[in-house]
């Protein structure tokens, strides 16, 4: 089909799983080069294909990079990743009862003698299978009977571990977010949406906010009015992201700051309603009348972007206080 193919003859092949989501082929190659003390590895000696969605990679090495085959693991920013010979077909048992033992799953009628690898992860049980037919059979059956439990079983992918992902341009701002409306209600009816589980990334937020902030233009009387259609929409979506992340934090009951988990207080807020039957404490009578700084206060209601009105008052020497970031088209 007129496609060029490069063959890595007698190359060593290995796979890496559960990689950091902020890594790429270039980062991985640099780490490998450092590990074998060869900073100038030829691209013909190493091939890396990184799948960010699944957080895994395949690495082929030969010639000057072949020495990396003797290493069993790789250190990625303090995270040690063990090299494996193949990628497994993975299943998940969500919210698995804690009383179920690993051995009972390994010796169950479905998995006995298959060499299945079983591990617990965040309340779930993950099963690694090497047999594709068995994997497809489990997905077709959908349930697993173990220790008088009927367990739901489904396909597992590390990409569904959204709690370990930080909000960035690739997984939100420059992809899915742009296709959304600036209305949180579209997400409220979808409580399992990944946006409620992503970790907050302040640097990515500030970068996107600066990117879509209006730039001065000498030929424009008001830049916000001219490019408001796109940039204003994007700024509202970015602010909506803050609200969605806050809702997610409230649902999870905690958030992280500098790799430290902060637990929210579970004590609910109390709402006190006052009406005509409420009893208020008597106040003292002021003997001297209050003095006001101005004799008169004028109020103007205008149909204009609040930021435009703010800048106009500043240019006239006033010191305005902006209380509400209103929509440019619906103040």
From TrEMBL:
<dbReference type="InterPro" id="IPR019261">
    <property type="entry name" value="PARG_cat_microbial"/>
</dbReference>
<feature type="domain" description="Microbial-type PARG catalytic">
    <location>
        <begin position="245"/>
        <end position="331"/>
    </location>
</feature>
<dbReference type="Pfam" id="PF10021">
    <property type="entry name" value="PARG_cat_microb"/>
</dbReference>
<dbReference type="InterPro" id="IPR043472">
    <property type="entry name" value="Macro_dom-like"/>
</dbReference>
<protein>
    <recommendedName>
        <fullName>Microbial-type PARG catalytic domain-containing protein</fullName>
    </recommendedName>
</protein>
């Amino acid at each position: 089909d007129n496609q060029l193919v490069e063959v890595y003859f007698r190359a060593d092949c290995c796979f890496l799983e559960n990689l950091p989501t902020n890594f790429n082929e270039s980062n991985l190659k640099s780490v490998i080069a450092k590990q074998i003390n060869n900073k100038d590895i030829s691209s013909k000696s190493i091939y890396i294909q990184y799948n960010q969605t699944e957080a895994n990679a395949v690495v082929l090495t030969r010639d000057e990079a072949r020495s990396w085959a003797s290493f069993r693991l790789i250190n990625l920013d303090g995270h040690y990743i063990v090299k494996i010979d193949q990628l497994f077909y993975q299943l998940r048992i969500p919210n698995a009862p804690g009383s179920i033992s690993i051995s009972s799953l390994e010796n169950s009628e479905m998995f006995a003698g298959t060499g299945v690898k079983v591990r617990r992860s965040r309340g779930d049980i993950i099963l690694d299978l090497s047999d594709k037919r068995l994997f497809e059979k489990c997905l077709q059956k959908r349930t697993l009977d173990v220790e008088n439990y009927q367990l739901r079983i489904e396909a597992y992918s590390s990409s569904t571990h959204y709690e370990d992902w930080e909000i960035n341009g690739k997984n939100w701002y420059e992809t899915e977010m742009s296709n959304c409306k600036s209305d949180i209600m579209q997400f409220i009816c979808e409580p399992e949406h990944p946006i409620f589980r992503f970790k907050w990334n302040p640097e990515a937020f500030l970068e996107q906010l600066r990117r879509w902030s209006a730039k001065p233009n000498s030929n424009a009387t008001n830049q916000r009015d001219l490019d408001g259609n796109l940039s204003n929409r994007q700024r509202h979506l970015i602010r909506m992201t803050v609200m969605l992340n806050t809702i997610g934090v409230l649902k999870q009951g905690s958030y992280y700051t500098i790799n430290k988990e902060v637990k929210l207080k579970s004590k609910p807020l109390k709402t006190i309603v006052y009406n005509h039957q409420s009893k208020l404490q008597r106040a003292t009578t002021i003997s001297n009348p209050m003095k006001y700084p101005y004799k008169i206060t004028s109020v103007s209601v205008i149909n204009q972007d609040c930021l435009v009105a703010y800048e106009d008052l500043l240019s006239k020497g006033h010191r305005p206080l902006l209380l509400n970031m209103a929509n440019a088209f619906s103040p």
